[in-house]
Backbone:
């Protein structure tokens, strides 16, 4: 190996290590709910070009752009349930040309709603059935115990976020969580 080649490989290795270190240090600690069809966060961030076509294609307006000043996530799309809910039309996937959103990921990952009972007003004996009545899979994804207390059943959840959008608490009592789909069952 020539001396020139050695120093070029050394410089490339140092630059790559510095880039990886910078990425790990600047990585956001906040979790964003990415659009349907997104894979794991690292792959999504690597593929997303921040073009905004998915946000423009969103028919309900649930997709928004991250406004935080972290350069890794700035302008990337996320689902903002303060705006609306997801109709699962997948126009965002069709609009994405970078591969950050793909139909293949719909078979690997899904979103499910999780209830934080400590924040839910129904569990503080205040009458509220908002999440229940907003759910398109009422009596399947969300049921009521004793006609008062919501119970969430993730196996039936569509991951649309209607319950979050409708939830009157601040901060919200319901969160969406991305889970891997078990291919065996």
Residues:
């Amino acid at each position: 190996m020539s001396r020139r080649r050695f120093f070029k490989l050394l410089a490339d290795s140092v630059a790559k290590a510095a880039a990886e270190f910078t990425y790990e240090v600047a990585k956001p600690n906040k979790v964003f709910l990415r659009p349907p069809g997104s894979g794991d966060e690292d792959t999504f961030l690597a593929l997303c070009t921040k073009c905004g076509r998915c946000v423009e294609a969103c028919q309900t307006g649930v997709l928004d752009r991250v406004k935080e000043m972290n350069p890794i996530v700035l302008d990337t799309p996320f689902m903002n349930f303060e705006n609306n809910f997801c109709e699962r039309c997948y126009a965002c996937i069709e609009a994405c040309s970078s591969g950050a959103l793909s139909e293949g990921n719909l078979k690997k990952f899904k979103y499910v709603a999780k209830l934080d009972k400590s924040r839910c007003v129904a569990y503080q004996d205040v009458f509220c059935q908002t999440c229940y009545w907003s759910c398109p899979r009422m009596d399947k994804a969300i049921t009521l115990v004793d006609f008062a207390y919501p119970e969430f059943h993730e196996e039936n959840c569509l991951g649309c976020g209607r319950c979050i959008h409708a939830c009157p608490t601040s901060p919200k009592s319901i969160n969406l969580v991305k889970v891997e789909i078990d291919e065996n069952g």
